[in-house]
From TrEMBL:
Residue numbers binding GTP: 139-142, 191-199
GO cellular component, one term: cytoplasm
Cofactor(s) demanded: Zn(2+)
Biased composition (Basic and acidic residues): 307-318
Quaternary structure, from the entry: Monomer. Associates with 30S ribosomal subunit, binds 16S rRNA.
Protein name: Small ribosomal subunit biogenesis GTPase RsgA
Keyword annotations: Cytoplasm, GTP-binding, Hydrolase, Metal-binding, Nucleotide-binding, Ribosome biogenesis, RNA-binding, rRNA-binding, Zinc
Protein family per UniProt: Belongs to the TRAFAC class YlqF/YawG GTPase family. RsgA subfamily.
GO biological process: ribosomal small subunit biogenesis
Lineage, highest ranks first: Bacteria, Bacillati, Actinomycetota, Thermoleophilia, Solirubrobacterales
UniProt organism field: Capillimicrobium parvum
């Protein structure tokens, strides 16, 4: 990792991409937050609020992006992303909005004593669609005696890498979660309002509150704006994204593709992927981007269906096992 950018997270080798832009004066930076058409970017110097060049209007930088800054300190290019969290706006042609980029792990936060498994499943599917593995974090563990069991069970159901139960004010469960957050890794918190995400971030920060500080920046006209950091550096070297944009209700609402579904009834093949099959009724009538969004939703839905089937199978196996055990008992007593 580039020494100048230590503490900004593990980053892929972007030298080739930076060189390909053909301007040796460009420097690498990471986006810490977005705020009203400006981006808080961290460079070798202290963070500053940067504008983005006009050509980036179509694909604006987001929190977690690696970007190239020009000599004036403006964002000239967004470098290729790995691991994204993307929201689909229902029913629109420009259906997608990337909310966080270069994410290594999604923390699915649900509050005890009544975590919403279906909501967690939607968030897990969003993460999976962006190539991001997920871990379950049940918060407010002090409100449920079986917290750890519940976390393990939900993690299994969602195919998550791990399940934790944490009680932030008491510090319970924080250490094992910290151990999962490898130095240089970027995690994102996904969960409903009130789940205790901010409280959890503070617990992970411990006494090292400096990293959460808002940054005051002049905008050149004497006015000062305060930009809260959304990409937060933790003491162990991991980073965590806790953005307001990710909290909005509707993040997990499936998009409607009524138009695609109606046209698809006329495709020659019932399982047409609208990717160039003969007799496709969708491909010529619908925008490519929209078909791609439709495809992504299919992938998400397939992922959820797989998980449901796997969990039903596990339950059935469990029932069969307990029947078998009972059978043995009957034989003995009978
Ligand atoms: N009992 C208990 N309460 C908690 C715990 N963690 C957070 N809370 C409470 O839950 C409420 C919501 O916590 P926040 O951290 O603001 O939740 P959030 O997910 O950041 O919510 P938004 O900012 O609305 O997205 C607060 O009143 C916290 O004090 C916990 O471990 N146990
Ligand atoms: Zn088709």
């Amino acid at each position: 990792m580039h020494a100048d950018l230590a503490g900004l997270g593990r980053r892929p080798d972007l030298t080739a991409e930076l060189d390909a832009l053909g301007d040796p004066s460009l420097t690498l930076a990471r986006v810490l937050a977005q705020h009203r058409g400006r981006w808080l970017v961290a460079t070798a110097d202290r963070p500053h609020a940067a504008p983005a060049r006009g050509r980036l209007r179509e694909t604006p930088p987001v929190t977690g992006d690696w970007v190239a800054l020009d000599r004036a300190g403006a964002i000239a290019a967004v470098l290729p992303r790995r691991g994204t969290i993307t929201r689909r706006a229902a029913g629109t042609a420009t259906a997608e909005q990337v909310l966080a980029a270069n994410v290594d792990l999604a923390l699915l936060a649900e509050p005890l004593p009544a975590p919403n498994a279906r909501r967690a499943e939607r968030f897990a599917a969003l993460a999976a669609a962006g190539g991001v593995p997920a871990a379950v974090v049940l918060t407010k563990a002090d409100l449920d005696e079986d917290a750890h069991l519940g976390a393990a069970r939900l993690a299994r159901r969602l195919g998550a890498v791990d399940g934790f139960a944490v009680s932030a004010p008491h510090g319970d469960g924080i250490a094992p979660l910290r151990a999962l957050l490898e130095p240089g890794a970027t995690a994102v918190l996904l969960g409903p309002s009130g789940a205790g995400k901010s409280t959890l971030v503070n617990a992970l920060l411990g006494s090292d509150r400096q990293a959460t500080g808002a940054v005051r920046e002049g905008d050149g006209r004497g006015r000062h704006t305060t930009v809260a950091r959304e990409l937060i550096a933790l003491p162990g070297g991991a980073l965590v994204i806790d953005t307001p944009g990710l909290r909005e209700v509707g993040l997990w609402e499936p998009a409607s593709f009524a138009d695609v579904d109606a046209l698809a009834a006329d495709c020659r093949f019932a399982d047409c992927a609208h990717a160039g099959e003969p007799g496709c009724a969708v491909r010529d009538a619908v925008d490519d981007d929209r078909i791609e969004s439709w495809r992504k939703l299919q992938r998400e839905q397939a992922w959820i269906d797989d998980r449901r089937a796997a969990s039903r199978e596990r339950e059935a196996r469990g029932r069969a096992r307990s029947r078998a055990t009972r059978g043995v008992t009957y034989k003995r007593t009978g």
